UniProtKB/TrEMBL annotation:
Belongs to the iron/ascorbate-dependent oxidoreductase family. GA20OX subfamily. This is 2-oxoglutarate-dependent dioxygenase GA 20-oxidase. InterPro entries: IPNS-like_FE2OG_OXY, IPNS-like_sf, Iron_ascorbate_oxido_reductase. It comes from the Eukaryota. Its cofactor is L-ascorbate. Keywords: Dioxygenase, Iron, Metal-binding, Oxidoreductase. PANTHER family: 2-OXOGLUTARATE (2OG) AND FE(II)-DEPENDENT OXYGENASE SUPERFAMILY PROTEIN-RELATED (PTHR47990). The keyword Metal-binding applies. It comes from Jasminum sambac. GO terms for molecular function: gibberellin 20-oxidase activity; metal ion binding.
Length: 278
């Protein structure tokens, strides 16, 4: 990862993320946002059956990144496997058919991201990544020993102490919807510091874009649906074009989706009432 972020800016800009895509290099998301820019650089790429990670590295970054590409490909393979095991464990813990989530994610389009947070002279004035819930389903994160990840729990921000031998696994908005809110999406942020660069490696577990997502019937029983059916492509579009991910993305997404589906916006906003089934 060091070799990647240490490249001259010209080479990083050559693989910059294009509008409407989550793949490529981004410096502070400066192409997308005009205020509260995150103090970070990111490099992202997809992990799905059609794409070959090693080939992406070689063709985009050059021959000198071929070996790194093979390592990332192996890492993605391992993440895919572990994510499917976690899906089974989540199903068991929820008392539903243990293969329901595993099958949903087996042919998923997950996203892998390298984050680099440079030191900041006035670290208290910015964030590496501001407070947000991840819109995807599960996030499997590894951070270096510098520290900076914080989660919001029991009404306060808590630092997550880095451990080289551990991953942080967070529930994201899509999984929260898939279990009808039984598991909550984790609100988190990354702070920066004045001295040291910090790096993290993040695997955003996501289903195939066009699959219809809904909780299993055995979880719902006769309980009220909290979120409408949707596709990952809908939520991706929402967070790429219409809404900057924050603590309440899922709620706002549900309202937006209904307002697109219904004729009048006001009618749909009112209909996001807990007494409704979707
Ligand atoms: C679908 C995605 C949007 C983001 C990348 C993937 C999964 C997580 C999302 C993100 C990390 C959530 C916080 C805001 C964001 C803009 C970021 O800070 O990087 C998000 C991603 C993105 O659009 O780049
Ligand atoms: O770098 C971190 O620890 C957090 C990154 C993050 O939240 C993200 O990329 O979504
Ligand atoms: Fe995140």
């Amino acid at each position: 990862m060091n070799a990647l972020f240490d490249l001259p800016m010209k080479r990083k800009r050559a693989v910059k993320r294009k509008a409407g895509s989550v793949w490529g290099y981004s410096g502070a998301h400066a192409d997308r946002y005009s205020s509260k820019l995150p103090w970070k650089e990111t490099f992202s790429f997809g992990d799905n059956s059609e794409s070959c990670v090693a080939n992406y590295f070689k063709t985009q970054l050059g021959e000198d990144f071929e070996e790194a590409g093979l390592v990332y490909e192996k890492y993605c393979e391992a993440m895919r496997k572990v994510s499917l095991v976690i899906m089974e464990l989540l199903a068991i813990s929820l008392g539903v058919d243990r293969s329901y989530y595993r099958e949903l994610f087996e042919d998923g389009n997950s996203i892998m991201r390298c984050n680099s947070y440079p030191p900041c002279k006035q670290a208290g004035l910015t964030f590496g990544t501001g407070p947000h819930c991840d819109p995807n389903s599960l996030t499997i994160l590894h951070q270096d020993q510098v520290g900076g990840l914080e989660i919001f729990a029991d009404n306060k921000w808590r630092a997550i102490t880095p451990r080289p031998d551990a991953f942080v696994v967070n529930i994201g908005d899509t999984f929260m919807a898939l279990c009808n809110g039984r598991y909550k999406s984790c609100l988190h942020r990354a702070v920066v510091n004045e001295e040291r660069v910090r790096r993290s490696l993040v695997y955003f577990v996501s289903p195939k874009e066009d699959k219809v997502l809904r909780p299993p019937q055995d979880l719902l029983g006769s309980t009220t649906r909290k979120y409408p059916d949707f596709k990952w492509s809908d939520l991706l579009e929402f967070t790429q074009i219409h809404y900057r991910a924050d603590a309440t993305t899922l709620q706002n997404f549900a309202q937006w989706l209904l307002s697109c589906r219904n004729d009048t916006t006001s009618k749909s906003l009112q209909s996001l009432d807990s007494s409704h089934h979707y």
